[in-house]
Automatic annotation (TrEMBL):
<dbReference type="InterPro" id="IPR036291">
    <property type="entry name" value="NAD(P)-bd_dom_sf"/>
</dbReference>
<keyword id="KW-0812">Transmembrane</keyword>
<feature type="transmembrane region" description="Helical">
    <location>
        <begin position="62"/>
        <end position="79"/>
    </location>
</feature>
<keyword id="KW-1133">Transmembrane helix</keyword>
<dbReference type="InterPro" id="IPR002347">
    <property type="entry name" value="SDR_fam"/>
</dbReference>
<feature type="transmembrane region" description="Helical">
    <location>
        <begin position="191"/>
        <end position="212"/>
    </location>
</feature>
<protein>
    <submittedName>
        <fullName>BDH protein</fullName>
    </submittedName>
</protein>
<comment type="similarity">
    <text>Belongs to the short-chain dehydrogenases/reductases (SDR) family.</text>
</comment>
<dbReference type="Pfam" id="PF00106">
    <property type="entry name" value="adh_short"/>
</dbReference>
<keyword id="KW-0472">Membrane</keyword>
Length: 214
């Protein structure tokens, strides 16, 4: 792999691959958790390790696609989990790479579901059919329907202007002084992140519980 770039140099790596799904913790089988960790977290780490020698040699850039969902979750904790893990991996890597002149940047988009199609709408029937008998005994079909309607409504509110995120990625790769984090999100999404960062966990839990009940 390294021999292909040895003469021309290697400047930037963008770790963009990701998958998403919706569901409460017990609704998803262990195989799904393993798949998400492998793609969203370990996939980025594998790629980073493969190109690290070249990035150090040419003082390049590494860009990671995170999400504001790294700070809170609204029904897709499995996706949130992987993004929070990527954030911590990047925090360690950014500090370690300073001595080599390699800069590490994180892109934190808000809801761009309609731009990326990362998450297709899910029907209550699809979700119900995948539940274990134990989960079916705890949750009603009506509850699953409410959660599906809620999550699908969030998807429908996603921005269609995906170029905003691409612009942030380009800046991270080309700016003489790139930011460590680029939050590309609506004002209300940024406000949620601010509440999460500044207020006690109980306050954030109350805000999210209220949102989930609407």
């Amino acid at each position: 792999l390294l021999s292909h770039f040895s003469s021309s140099g290697f400047w930037g790596l963008v770790n963009n691959a990701g998958i998403s799904t919706f569901g409460e913790t017990g609704w998803l089988p262990m195989e799904t958790y393993e798949k998400f960790a492998d793609v969203n977290l370990l996939g980025s780490i594998r790629t980073t390790l493969a190109f690290l020698p070249l990035l150090r040699k040419y003082k390049g850039r590494i860009v990671f696609m995170s999400s504001i969902i790294a700070y809170f979750t609204l029904g897709n904790g499995i996706y949130s989990m992987t993004k929070a893990a990527i954030e911590k991996f990047c925090d360690a890597l950014r500090l370690e790479m300073k001595k080599f002149g390699v800069q590490v940047c994180i892109i934190q988009p808000g809801n761009y579901a309609r731009s990326t199609k990362i998450q297709p709408p899910l029907s209550a029937e699809e979700i119900w059919s995948e539940l274990s008998e134990e989960e079916k005994a705890v949750y009603s079909k009506e509850y699953v329907q409410e959660r599906a309607d809620f999550f699908n409504s969030i998807l429908s509110e996603g921005s269609t202007n995906g170029s905003e995120v691409v612009d942030a990625m380009v800046d991270a790769l080309t700016s003489p002084a790139p930011k460590a984090r680029y939050m590309v999100a609506k004002l209300k999404e940024k406000a949620l992140v601010l509440v999460c960062a500044l207020f006690p966990t109980a306050v954030m839990d109350s805000v999210l519980s209220y949102a989930l009940s609407k």
